[in-house]
């Protein structure tokens, strides 16, 4: 059963980090006029009203996007993302990854959005369905993406952003990427993952398994807002990339210290590593 609802978490520090990376990738990919395809395996609702009870139950956005908007002025590294977000935040909204992609992509590009949750896919249709560039699939994002891979056009990226509610999702991600990379070797892959308390953290084993798949390249960036707890909770998140476009690693490296200092508490930090260097 699917119980995760992204509206509780929209605009939190993990969303901010993921969406900053998404903006860097899409900005780089749209430098060339050639059309491209954006695939979201786990789209959720696409757009969030920050005035709702759901968003305000724990108001995670106030320690995420709102903190960044208040204290960001002097950082050109995050200006593009903040300019985009401000247009939504002014209307009490926060864009999810589908709305961010729709905003940055051009007329010649395509968006393929997968979502499995019955209610959430209706929200996604209501928020994104009128855009002629968008195809919405109510199906499992791993199965669905493999079924259409390689997409047309072949140039493009996939964002993989599962809720990790079930332990098996870590292995599902690795199996999926292994198959996808075979079918779509030129596709840029961006995977989000949580950094959890010491006793529950499955990210290191997942990254080891991913490296063993031997993709063309593998770059990771992690960012945490507090020290790792022993027992419970998420303290940060990571992104793993295959076929990361040239120089985007440096752009990510520039934004991490800014993000950590704007959003982090004592004990916050970040790291990047090429687990497999591009040939
Ligand atoms: N990518 C979105 C963003 O950044 O705005 C957030 C995605 S949210 C973390 C994860 C979503 O995946 C949830 O809406 C959940 O219903 C959906 N989901 C869970 N398992 C799925 C599956 N196997 N295939 C597609 N969607 C799934």
Task: Explain what you see.
The chain has 279 residues and is an alpha/beta fold. It has one domain (6-276): Rossmann fold (3-Layer(aba) Sandwich). The protein is 39% helix and 20% strand. It is built from 10 helices and 10 strands. It has helices at residues 13-29, 53-58, 65-71, 79-89, 97-104, 118-128, 141-148, 168-183, 203-212, 248-263, and strands spanning 37-40, 47-49, 93-95, 110-114, 134-137, 156-160, 188-196, 218-224, 234-242, 269-276. The strands form 2 sheets. Strands 5-4-1-6-7-9-8-10 form an 8-stranded mixed sheet, with helices on both faces. β6 (156-160), α8 and β7 (188-196) form a beta-alpha-beta unit. The longest helix is centred in the first third of the chain and has 17 residues, at 13-29. It is globular and about 45 Å long. The termini are far apart. The mean pLDDT is 96. Bound molecules: S-adenosylmethionine. S-adenosylmethionine binds next to α7.
Keywords, please?
single chain; alpha/beta; Rossmann fold; 39% helix; binds S-adenosylmethionine
SSE diagram, text form:
Blueprint: H1 13-29, E1 37-40, E2 47-49, H2 53-58, H3 65-71, H4 79-89, E3 93-95, H5 97-104, E4 110-114, H6 118-128, E5 134-137, H7 141-148, E6 156-160, H8 168-183, E7 188-196, H9 203-212, E8 218-224, E9 234-242, H10 248-263, E10 269-276
Parallel strand pairs: 1-4, 1-6, 4-5, 6-7
Antiparallel strand pairs: 2-3, 7-9, 8-9, 8-10
Helix pairs in contact: 1-5, 1-10, 7-8, 8-9
Bound molecules: S-adenosylmethionine.
S-adenosylmethionine is lined by residues 2, 4, 6, 18, 40, 42-44, 96-97, 114-117, 120, 140-142, 161-163.
